[in-house]
Amino acid sequence: xxxxxxxxxxxxxxxxxxxxxxxxxxxxxxxxxxxxxxxxxxxxxxxxxxxxxxxxxxxxxxxxxxxxxxxxxxxxxxxxxxxxxxxxxxxxxxxxxxxxxxxxxxxxxxxxxxxxxxxxxxxxxxxxxxxxxxxxxxxxxxxxxxxxxxxxxxxxxxxxxxxxxxxxxxxxxxxxxxxxxxxxxxxxxxxxxxxxxxxxxxxxxxxxxxxxxxxxxxxxxxxxxxxxxxxxxxxxxxxxxxxxxxxxxxxxxxxxxxxxxxxxxxxxxxxxxxxxxxxxxxxxxxxxxxxxxxxxxxxxxxxxxxxxxxxxxxxxxxxxxxxxxxxxxxxxxxxxxxxxxxxxxxxxxxxxxxxxxxxxxxxxxxxxxxxxxxxxxxxxxxxxxxxxxxxxxxxxxxxxxxxxxxxxxxxxxxxxxxxxxxxxxxxxxxxxxxxxxxxxxxxxxxxxxxxxxxxxxxxxxxxxxxxxxxxxxxxxxxxxxxxxxxxxxxxxxxxxxxxxxxxxxxxxxxxxxx
Amino acid sequence: xxxxxxxxxxxxxxxxxxxxxxxxxxxxxxxxxxxxxxxxxxxxxxxxxxxxxxxxxxxxxxxxxxxxxxxxxxxxxxxxxxxxxxxxxxxxxxxxxxxxxxxxxxxxxxxxxxxxxxxxxxxxxxxxxxxxxxxxxxxxxxxxxxxxxxxxxxxxxxxxxxxxxxxxxxxxxxxxx
Lengths: 514, 177
Known about the structure:
The structure holds 2 protein chains of 2 kinds. By secondary structure, chain A is of the alpha+beta class.
C-alpha cells in the first residue's frame, strides 16, 4: 500500500509528461514561391513540390538548388495524382508554375500543454515530498471587513475526533456588519469531514470608544483606552512594528532545531497604562507546527488512525488527557508580570489551536504602582505568530446576546435542512470538502455598536492521505502519547527541513484567500 | 477514480468539443500536418452561396481559385462557383491535433489528483488551457476566408497555380481516403 498509490500517481503524471514530449500537435506552414524567386525557397522544408501549369506536380525529397534548376529525388504525379514517374529529377526553374514548401512546426498548443504538464508534475512533487504542508483547515468562517471579505475565524481546530468535540469562541475582530443582516461564509476547504453542532454569533455592546474582549476563562469584558506597546523586544530584535496594529504584519520566529517545545521570551513595555484595572489584549495565530505534528501523528498511525481515534470515544478521561499531551507541551502564550521579589509571575495563558485565523483574547493584569507596565510573553519558538498586542483599561463583564442563524444559503438558495441542523441542539451540520454555506444572522438595531464573536461547537475528521500511510509506525505513534517531550525533540530536525516552505505551500494549496 | 476528477475530465472533453472548429470532410480525407508535406491534393472546402431567395451548399476538395471563380471537386464532379456569389465559406487544410489536445487535456486534468487540494487550481488550469489550445489548434487548420482572401486559400488547392487549361474537368477524380 505504501508504494502502490504513490506509484499510480507518478504513473499518471509521468504519462502526462511523456505525452507532452511525444504527442504530435503540430502546425503546417505552407508557402508558395514563384520560380522567379526560387532563390528564396525555404531550405528547411524537407519536401519540395513543383506545380506545373498542366496540373502535374513533382514531389521531391532531398532537394537542392543547382544553378537555375532544382534537383531532387521523388515522384511526378498527374492531375489526378496518379504516379507518372519516379526517380531523380532536374527541373529548370522556369518550367515550374509555382514551388510549394511545407514546414511542420510545434504548435503553441503543444507548448502550453507541455508547460501545464510541467506545473502539474512540479505540484505533485511538492505534495509528495511535503504532504504535511499541503491542505488542512477545519471549519473556516469568512465575514465582511472594512476592505471586503476576510477569514475571521476557524472553528474547534483541536477537535480532530468525535471524542474531542469542543466549543470554541472566536472574536470577529475585523468584522464590519453592513446592516442588520450579518453574513458568515462557512467553508470546508480541506480533505476533512466537518460536523458542526452549532455556529452562533454572540454580540456584546461595546463601551463608548472601546471594544469587548474575551478573557481566557470565557468572560466578556469591556475595554477601552487601548494603547500599543512602547517597546517590543525578543531575541531576534525589535518587534514593535509587527504588533502595533491588526494589520497582517506578524511577529514570528523559527522553531528550535533540537526541541520543538523550546521556549522564547518577548518583552513588552508600555510607557503609560490606563488607570484602574488593565488587561493585555493579544491577537495571535499558530504557525504550521501544530499542523505538521497532527499530520505526523496521523501518518504514524497510518491505516490504524481511524481505529485509534474511534478508541478515544470509549477511552476514559485519563487517556484523552494523554492524547492532548503534545498540545500541552507546546503550550500557549503565557503572560507574565514582574513580582515583588524581582522575578516574574504568570497571570494567564492565551492561544488557540489553528494556523488560519487570528484569535484575540485579553488577559487581565494585576494592579501595579506607577504608570509604566512591563509584560513578558513566554511562548514556544516557531509556534506563534503575534499579530497584535495592546494594553487596555478593563471594565466589568458585559451582557452577551446569542444569535442563531435565521437563514442558511447554499449556492445562493435557502437550505432549510442546514438551518434546522444548526438551530436544533440535537442535530449537526455535516460538511464535506468544497462545501460552502452562508449563514445569516439578524443583528440588533445599531449593529455597529456591537462586538461580534463566533461560538462554534463540533469536531472534524481528517481524511487519510495516501502519502501518510507510507510513514505508518505504531511505535512512534505510541511515543507521541507516552513521551510527548521526547517526540518534540525527535521531530525537530524533520520539521526544520520543512519549515521554510510550509507556510508558502500551505497557503498556496488553498483556494480561498486569507 | 474520485467523482470530482471524472467530472473534471469529462468537462475538459466537453469544453474542447464545444470550442473546436468542425468540418464535413469524409473520414481519412484530411492529411495530418506531416502527411500534408507530401500530399498533392487540396484541402476540404465548404461553401454556401445564394441570397434570401435560396441558398446552395457545396463541399468538396478545393481544386483551384482564380480572381473571380473557385473550383470544387465534389462527389458529383467539378463545380465552379463565382467567388462573388459565395456567402460564407470554410476551408480545412489539414487534420488538426485537436484530438491529441483533448486526450492530453483529459489525462492532464486527471493527473491533478496527484496535486491534492492544489487541483483546485491545476484542474481548472488544465481545462482552460486545453479548451483554448484545442480551439486554437482546430482553427489553425482552417485559414479564414475573411483574413486570407481567395488568393490565400489557393495555397491549399490541388492546383495552386490555377486550373490547368488542358485537363478535362470530368476527368478529375475525388481523392479516395
